[in-house]
Amino acid sequence: MEKSYNPGKIEEEWYRYWEQNKFFQGDIYSEKKIFSMVIPPPNITGSLHMGHALTYSLPDVIVRWKRKQGFDTMWLPGFDHAGIATQIIVEKELLAQGVKKEDLGEEKFLEKLWEWKKKSKALIANQLRRLGCSLDWSRERFTLDEGLSRAVRKVFVSLYREGLIYRDYYLVNWCPRCRTAISDLEVINKQKKGKLYYIKYPIIDGSDFIVVATTRPETMLGDTAIAVNPEDPKYINYAGKKAILPLVGRILPIIHDERVEKEFGTGAVKVTPAHDPLDFEIGKNKNLEIIKVIDESGKMNMEAGQEFYGLDRIEARERIVKKLKEQKFLMKIEDYEHSIGHCQRCDSVIEYNLSWQWFMKVKPLAERAVQVVKEGRTKFIPENWEKIYFDWMENIHDWCISRQIWWGHRLPVWYCKECNEIIVDEEPPIKCSKCKNSDLRQEKDVLDTWFSSALWPFSTLGWPDKTEDLKRYYPTDLLITGFDIIFFWVARMIMMGMKFLNGVPFRKVFINGLIRDEHGQKMSKSKGNIVDPIDAIDEFGVDALRFTLVSSTVAGMDIALSKGKIFGYKTFVNKIWNASRFVLMNYRGEDLKIMEEELTLPDKWIRSKLNGLVKRINHCLENFLFHEACEEIYHFIWHQFCDWYVEMVKLDLKKRKITSLSNLIFTLKDILNLLHPFMPFVTEEIYQKLPNHGISICVSEYPKERKEFEDIKAEEMMDVIIETVKEIRKIRVENRIPPQKKVEVYFIPSGEEIDQILHKNIDYIQLLVNAKGINFVSIFPEDKRILKGACRYSEAGIFLHEVEDLEGEKLRLKKEIEKINREMLLLEERMKNKDFIEKAPQKIISETHNRYRELTGLKKKLEDSLTKF
After folding, report:
1. How far is it, in rounded angstroms, from Cα 868 to Cα 800?
2. Which of 720, 716, 738 shows the shortest CA–CA distance to 729?
3. With contact defined as beta carbons under 8 Å apart, do 5 and 577 qualify?
4. Rounded to the nearest 10 degrees, how much is the dihedral formed by the CA atoms of 379, 383, 389, 394?
């Protein structure tokens, strides 16, 4: 083995080896138990970020573990066309070259999108490979593949014929930048500082004004009524009256509606049915005229009047406010903070747009999707997400599924140009089903991206055909994803799975948290706190990054990430490498075998500890306790295997004990197998250097619990040795005795059994404490200066003669005591300070008291040591 581990050199090589040998491919003819997953398909909008690295590392841990347990595993990869988001990116690229998509036309623009798809997909696929994701690349899918498109058409037609998809002229969320409808879920509400404008609407008889408050005076040009709450005493006398719309002159009825908030503004609101959802509902109920004054690009249309036609909505607002002031209709303007909807994709302020759109009735599907979760057929981990899922599903609204963009699944809808008949079919119709005219045009709108994504678990397996993949791998076993797409994606997959296959799409859903920086702040380019996964891989290696992410994962909780943390686990990778190198340096081609009667205490102990670890790791992975699994294996490798067993077995290796050498190598092999799902590359590299290794650690058996390896007695005996050695080392550290300095050690065992354990293992103890001699006594000799300590099993001491510079040591101890006295004095003053006691956080107060107690104990030890001189 090379002296140091070089991840960059071997990672690509091993991934290529795994792919070439088809270790990741599911086998429909296999008789093994099945474990299947589909990947949350990354959008083809660029490269992967750290959130993707987390979301894809976690399922890879599980699928590698299942594969090694002997399952036929199938983890299906794929990519999402991401309609709006991808179109925006390609549009921006073209605009940078001075080209608009309209200049190219739809056909040429779509060619550009397919070129982008090819480039982006290749980049992301390479990044997934670099992360070590053991995906079945033979089953790769894309949401615009022909097979998936056929599934989309079938679902659309089926739901339409059932009356669950319909077309309506309705008010929808509209992004003026993207020029398309967007769903409620794609609107991000942000608190913004704005203005509240109080406008006087003259009563028609000229006797008075009714004052209306609005945040959007530009929409007043489309007002068709004024509404007040029937229970508002201020407006009892206004019932049946009419007002005049300032600047326009339109006559507006003053109407009652209980949904008007009496506390907002003056309690009277303008009703603009074409530009506000509540107003739209009021307009329908009261049969009001609907006047649209803002077009799809966010500019004022001809209905707004010649004076304002063509103005951007914000510019129009300024002009209107100015005119209202001039004509004495503006009473006042107040600062006002309120929630404003923004497009999730481009961050533009949304409008409400009255237009023909396609909708899907979701309620009937949601009811079954709720039931299967309540029945436990699909389980959320952690469970608290189930309540959030239920709340949303039980209050769900119809879903606007049409989008006015070019990139996506065209609706399988045709209109007859002769009789306006609507024809919905999976294949293009030849003629009108009503008048038989052949002059038809297809609907220009495409489907919301999430419509095709909702079919992902079964469309990717060949549905609507009854394929062997579908029979074998559906439903899938697990989905791991972020909480931010539970409603966008997870809920819709459950609905569609139950509707079209009468079965849940996955049995378990693990919800991971968000990646934040080390201070808990959300990562963003503007803050400059982003850690790019590929940069991290280049700097630290995949295994260190993966272990950092997985070890930080607690179900449902966000993750604080820093480069320092990744560096810490790079050190852990190096520790594993160096320990393995030591093991292999001591192997000289011997036939490895274990004779039970030749096992030493350290051999029995590490085997028993390893057996307990195997049991706990399997339990952790079964229950998605990622953090605990990593903590367990880290502690075992670093603090039990490396710190104790490897050090102790050195004695036996010098004597060429085959049983101890064999046990050492077998233990390392099990460690690598346990660790492989978390750190695939370094474990494969070391595994391939072990004697008698298999074709790949990918497919070697995952360790199982073996009851015969459990040895409580050996663990108890080793505990005696470890605690005793720790006490001697502690005395050395506290008295600054260099580790390389040999010392004379004394023990007073706490009982006969302890005395026998220490005597029997004296060679190991002598090695671990670097002693030139060990003495067992009933009392410490009074004629010798001995530095003393005690643990549960014995009193321990080091003969002070080994400290050569006695005067220098006495001076050091005095200085340490003086330093402690100064710090204790400061702490005492702080604890007596009334302001500190009353105002400091409880955590700080507790830390202060704890530090004082710690210093008190340390001072006593130093004073005891000083008296021994």
Report:
1. 9
2. 738
3. yes
4. 90
Residue/partner pairs of 523-530 with CB below 8 Å, 24 or more apart: 523/50, 530/49, 530/50
Cis peptide before 176 (omega within 30 of 0): no
- Residue 157 corresponds to which tokens in the numbers above? 């037609």
DSSP state of 263: T
The C-alpha atoms of residue 381 and residue 373 are separated, in whole angstroms, by 12
Main-chain phi, psi angles of 652, to 5 degrees: -75, -30
- The angle that helices 752-760 and 712-734 make with each other, rounded to 10 degrees, is 80
Q: Do residues 251 and 244 touch, judged by C-beta distance below 8 A?
A: yes
pLDDT given at position 634:
97
User: Checking DSSP bridges between strand 559-561 and strand 743-749, what pairing results, if any?
Assistant: unpaired
Residue type, 504: V
- Fill in the amino acid letter for 585: M
Confirm if 456 and 430 have CB atoms less than 8 A apart: no
> Which helix or strand (DSSP H or E) is residue 291 part of?
none
Helix (H, G, I), strand (E, B) or coil at 152: helix
State residue 89's pLDDT score. Answer: 92
212 vs 322, 324, 547, CA distance in Å? 17, 13, 60
Count other C-beta atoms under 10 Å from residue 344's C-beta. Answer: 17
| HSE toward the beta carbon, residue 582, CA cutoff 13 A | 15
What tokens does 101 get? 């998509």
DSSP state of 400: E
Q: Please, which residues have CB within 8 angstroms of residue 88's CB and are 6 or more apart in sequence?
A: 178, 345, 346
Residue 805, pLDDT score: 57
At 809 the pLDDT is 64
* Buried b or exposed e, range 723-750, using 16+ CB within 10 angstroms: ebbebbbebbebbebeeeeebbbbbbbe
Task: Enumerate the β-bridge partners of residue 196.
Answer: 334
**Site of tokens 């209107």:** 320
pLDDT tens for 14-27 read: 999 999 999 999 99
Res 696: pLDDT: 98
pTM of the predicted model as reported, rounded to 2 decimal places = 0.86
Q: Closest by alpha carbon to 745, among 723, 762, 720?
A: 762
Q: Mind listing the pLDDT tens digit for each residue in 370-379? A: 999 999 999 9
Residue 832 has a pLDDT of 87
Q: Alpha helix (H) ranges present in 792-841?
A: 806-832, 834-839
Q: What is the pLDDT of residue 806?
A: 64
Residue type, 603: D
pLDDT of residue 833: 87
- Going from the C-alpha of 399 to that of each of 350, 434, 452, 495, the distances in angstroms are 17, 29, 14, 13
SS3 per-residue string spanning 648-676: HHHHHHHCCCHHHHHHHHHHHHHHHHHHC
At 817 the pLDDT is 87
How big is the CA angle at 316 (ends 315 and 318), to the nearest 5 degrees? 65
Residues in Cβ contact with 102 at an 8 Å cutoff, skipping those fewer than 6 apart: none
- Which stretch of DSSP H or E encloses residue 592? none
* pLDDT score for 493: 97
Amino acid letter, 401: I
Q: Is the dihedral of CA 407, 408, 409, 415 positive or negative?
A: negative
CB 674 within 8 A of CB 702: yes
Cα(799)–Cα(775) distance, integer angstroms: 10
Phi and psi (nearest 5°) for 364? Answer: -60, -35
Paired tokens of 459: 């469309």
Residue 239, pLDDT score: 77
Q: Write the DSSP assignment of 542-576 as a string of letters.
A: HHHHHHHHHHT--TT--EEE-HHHHHHHHHHHHHH
pLDDT beneath 50: ranges in the chain: none
**Cα distance between residue 553 and residue 509, in whole Å:** 15
Spatial separation of the C-alpha atoms in residues 817 and 253, rounded to whole Å? 88
In this prediction, residue 482 carries a pLDDT of 87
